């Protein structure tokens, strides 16, 4: 067991450095493409990271005989795994360096957070009675996948606002970003046209990802309510985690409602999506560190 934990810890440290280098490569190729041109190895580093996390999570699953989502450390690893997977898919679809520039820093800080957690939170431990259920994999994995999708989608909304703001004040690095990140049949677009189309692409992908993440969040909340009734005898207890999950659901329900029925697009919908980015972090981490409730076990050391 000790050897496993040690290897686990070392692997996370190595892939943290790997993602850090990937982030540097992405931003270097975006901002100074003509300075010491290097093959964009960032996406290969992210692929290696995703593969390593898959092996790590599978190892914990096999050795501990339960799905590895019982504490903060494991949930952070699973969240990072989900975000790197979405990152790789989006980068392949859009062929944009900006996806890596947006995704790799948040992946790096998540892994860095894992690396600095106390060793007590990194060690696998027996499940508490309320977690010894088949609902663990169903509920928690669905919630974490929804978090990863909604985080990426809302982060794209946030960057849409930033780039739309600077579209009125073109800067050299913005121009370089668009010219290098968006190509049409192999030919670079002019700045004004390229920026407009690029922003539309960001807006569409933000909407698509949030559109997938929202049903996952809904399923996660419903499955959690069923599990809560099985474990605690009530479907809803207004626990801080439950309350913020509902707030998160309402924010993204508002995003989709205004987008589909009110035809809000671009800045208006991106503003709501950007709010969702911060709400998710409060729901995922803030509640567990700032409030006490039925969902705080296994997250912080008492």
Query: How many strands, what sense, and barrel or not for the largest sheet?
Result: 2 strands, antiparallel
The gyration radius over C-alpha positions equals: 20 Å
**Low-confidence runs (pLDDT<50, min 5 residues)?**
1-6, 181-193, 297-302
| Mean pLDDT across residues | 79
Question: What features would you highlight for this structure?
Answer:
302 residues; mainly alpha; two-stranded antiparallel ribbon; 1% strand
Task: Describe the structure concisely.
By secondary structure, the protein is an all-alpha fold.
Please characterize this protein's 3D structure.
With 302 residues, the protein is mainly alpha-helical. Helices cover 76% and strands 1% of the residues. It has 10 helices and 2 strands. The protein has helices spanning 2-31, 42-64, 72-94, 97-116, 119-122, 135-167, 172-181, 191-232, 240-260, 267-290; strands at residues 183-184, 187-188. Strands 1-2 form a two-stranded antiparallel ribbon. A hairpin with a 2-residue loop joins strand 1 and strand 2 (187-188). Helix 8 crosses helix 9 (240-260). It is globular and about 55 Å long. The two termini are 23 Å apart.
